[in-house]
Amino acid sequence: MSQALEYYRSPARYLAARGLAAAGAGGGRLAGAVAGSVSPLRLVDRPAVRSGAPGMVRLRPLLSGICGSDLALLGGHASPYLTALASTPFVPGHEIVAETLEEAPGLPAGSRVVVDPVLPCAARDTPVCAECRAGRQNRCGHITAGALRAGLQTGFCADTGGGWSRSALAHVSQLHVVPEGLPDRQAVLVEPLACAVHAVRRAAVAPGASVLVVGAGTVGLLTVLALREFTAAGPVYVVAKHAHQRALAEALGATETLAPRHVARTLRMLTGGSLEHPDLGGDFLLGGVDVGFDCTGGAAGLDTALRTVRAGGTVVMSGMPSGAVDLAPVWFRELHLVGTYASAAGLPGGADARQDVPGPDFPEALRLAGRVAALAGFVDAVYPLSRWREAIGHALAAGRLGSVKVAFDPNRG
Amino acid sequence: MGRPGFVLEVDERTPALLVNEGEGARLERFPLGTRVIYPPDSLPGIRDVRAAIRHALLHPHGDDPLPALLRPGMRLTVVFDDISLPLPQMRTPDMRQLVIEQVLEYAAAAGVDDVELLAANALHRRMTAAELRRTVGDRVFRSFFPGHLKNHDAEDRANLTEVGTTRHGEVVEINRRAAESDLIVYVNITLTGMSGGSKSVAVGLASYRSLRHHHNVHTLRHSRSFNDPPKSAMHHSYDRMAGVLADNVRVFTVESTVNGDSYPPQVGFMNRREWEWSAADQASYLAFRKLNGMAPAKLRRQMWQRSYAPYGITGVHAGAPADVHPYTLAAVHRQQLTEVDGQSDIGVWGLPFICPYNVNSVMNPVLVMSLGLGYLFNLYRNKPIVRQGGVGIFYHPMPAEFHPVHHPSYIDFYESVLSRTKDPALIEEKYEEQFATDPWYTHLYRTSHAYHGVHPLYMWYWGAHALQHLGDVIFVGADRGAAARLGFRTASTLGDALEMARETVGSSPSITYHHSPPLALADVR
Q1: Residue A292 main-chain phi, psi, to 5 deg
Q2: Of A152, A239, A393, B85, whose CB is crowded by the most CB atoms within 10 A?
Q3: Which residues does the UniProt record annotate as the domain LarA-like N-terminal (chain B) (predicted)?
Q4: Complex ipTM, two decimals?
Q5: Is the pTM of this model over 0.80?
C-alpha cells in the first residue's frame, strides 16, 4: 500500500469548491484555503502502482510541486473541456522529481529523474501518431487511447499515479536524469521551466520586441527567464502583485514590473499609443507591446494581455485557461492568439521552426535549472502529504505569503 | 471703511474657528496662543461696473483711450482669462463679459471687422462651449462661437509664432493670431498677486516651449513668493518676456480686481469672522453641515461647484500692462494684505473645494498638493508664515480620485511617477520631456478637454518651494494611501497632527492658522 492524495469524482464538492473559490476571488482571504478543504481530494492508502507494460518504470516521487493547474482543478476553475482528457480517481502532481525503482534501458534503478508528464503514444503503446512522429508529443492524438486510461498528463491519469504520492509510473521516454549537483528543490522546477521554454519558443519573439508577462507566479517568472535565455526580446514588462515577485522578476531580467491595477495605463506610457475607455470592461490600448504572455490562467490575466498587445501582435496563453474572456481585441486588432501546452520532446535533429518541429524543451530546462542561481529559493515551502490542506492553502495564497512554489515531499511525515 | 486685516490670538473666549476641508468645512478649536490671520473686511464693490469699465477704457494708464486705437481694417484679438479665474467662479454676468461687450461696442463703432476672441488657457484644458458662454455671455457667444471665439491651442504649431528671445535666452512663443494682430486687448480678472500684468499674454497664449523657461523647479524655488512679483523669479521671467512682446505686439490690458465675497449668501458665514456670526449664521452653518454630510458625493460636488461667488468689483484699470498692473496689485493688497509679526513653528491651512484646475472637475491629490503647498503656502510677502524647517498642517480629505477626461496625465503622474520619486528636481529631469511630448496627452489636450501632459508636473513644481522649506507636512483627515503616495503624513485630528509635529518643532510650538477664505496675503515682518 502507498500513501497518496487522490482526486475523485464528486460534483457536489466540485461545485462547493468552485463557489468558495469564487468568493475568495472577491476578497475573502480564507476562502481559498477552504476551497482546498472542500475540493474532491483525499488522502488515501492505495495499492502501489504496478508496471508491466513495456518501457514503464516505477518511481518513488521525492518532491512534487503544486502547480496553478492543480489549484484550478481543486478550486473548480478548470475548463470542463478537460474532463474528457482525465480519468478518475487520479493522483495529481505532474511536477515531479523522483527516483526510479527499477532498471530500464539506459537507466539504472535508483536514478534521480524528472518527469516530462506528457503521456504520448510511446507511453500508451499505440501506433505513433503524426504529432508524436513530428516531435510534438504534447499534441499527441492518442491521449485517450492505448494501454493507459485517458489522461492528458501524469497527474491526471488513473493508471500512472502522480507526484502527490509515494508511488508513480512513467514511461522511460518521459524520464530525464537529473545531474548530480542539482538539488531536488531546483529539479522540481524543471517541468514548469520546460513549459516556459516551450511557450517562449512558440511565441517566436522578434529581436527587440517588447513583451508583457502577465503574472509573476512560477510560470510568469520562469517565462521571464526563458525570454532572456532564448530570445533577443527588448523590454520585458511583468505584471506582479507582490514585492517579492517584483524583485524576482527583475532579478530574472524584467525591464520593469507593473502593478496589476493600471497595467494598460502604465504600458501606454512605456510603449506609446492611446488609452481607450469602453463603456464596460477594462481600458485598452491602441498601441501596446508586441507580445503578451498570460501566465495566470485566469480570465483577467488573458483579458489584460489581449487589451495591451498592439495590433497584429501575439498573445500567448501560457496558463491553463479558465473563465470567459472578451475576444473582440483578437478580431479587431488582428492578434495572433497562440496556445502553448506543456513542452515538446522534439526530434533528434533538433528544432526546425520552418517545419514546425519544436526544440527539445526538457533538456534545455534541465540545463537552465542548474545554472540560474535565482531559482534556488523558489521552492520555499515543502509539506508532507498528511498536511495537504495547509499545503493547498499555502499554494493558493503563495503570492501574498511571499512564496513562489509550494511542494509535497511524499516521503515525509 | 472696512476694517483692516488682523491677527487674532486665540484665548479662552475665542470660539471654534471655521476650517475648510475640501467639499466640507469644520469648526476647530485651536490651542491657546494660536495666531489666526484674517484678511481685511470685504471691500465695497463698485456700484456701476459698466460705467467703471467705460471710464477705464477711455482713461487708460500709459496708453491712448481704446477707441483711439481702433480703426477699420485692423486685426483685433480680444483675449480673456480662462476658467481658472476667479475662484470660486463668479456669479453672472461675469466681469469678462461686461468688459468684452464694451470693447466690442467700441470696435463696432470704429468699423473693426476682423475680431477674434481667444481664451488664454495656455496648457489648461479647453473650456467647453457652455463654459465659454457663461464667461463671455450669450450675446457675444452667439455672435462669435465657434468660428471667432476659441480656446488657445498651445500645441498647434501652425498657429504659434516665435516673437523673440529675452536676454536670458527665454523663447517667447505665443499664439500666431494674437502675435500678428494690430492690437491685443487682454481682459483679466485678478484674484491674487500672481495673476495679471506681464503674466497675462506671456503665459496665457504661450506654448510649452516658452512656458518651460519659468514653469520649472529652479524658478519656483526662487519665487518667494510667487504672489509677491518683485521677489518672484517667475515674475522676473514674465517681465522679460513681456518686454519682448512689447517690442513686437501692442497689448492693451483691462484688469479688474474682486473683493472678498467668495461665497453666496446662503453660506455667508464663510465670509465672516466666527465670533461675529449671528444666530442666523450659526443656524446656516448647522444646516450646511447637516446637508453637506447627507448629500451623495456627486450632488455635494455639484452644490459646491455651483456656489457662484457674488464678488464685488473693487477696481478696473486699463492701458499699457506695465502701467496698469501696479494699480491692480494695490487693489489686491487693499483687500488681502495682513501684517503678521514674525514666523511660527507650525502653519495651518484649511484647503477649500476649489483650485484653479478643478473648476467643474475633481480635486485630485496632486491638485491638493499644489493648492496647499503651492497656492496657499505662497500667500505671503517677505517670509513664509512658517519658519524654515517648521511644519505645515493642511486639512483636506484627499481622496485618490481623478477626473478621467480633464486629468489623464495626472493619473499617470500619480501612479507611475510619484510611486518612484517625489523629488521635484528629479521629476523634472527624468519625466518632464516624456509628459510634455507624449502624443496621446497632446491629442487629448487639443481635441478633448484634458490638461496638457506636463501640467501635473508643473503642479508638483508649484509646491517645490514649500517642500524645500517645510520640515514636515501633515494632512488632517486625508486618505492615508493618497497622502503616503505624495510623501505626506496623515492625522485624524488637529490634536494628533500637533502631537506628530512635536518630533520636528518641539513640545511648545508657536502656531499660525492662515484663515481662508476670503484670501489673506500674509505680510510677514
Answers
A1: -125, 135
A2: A239
A3: 37-225
A4: 0.81
A5: yes
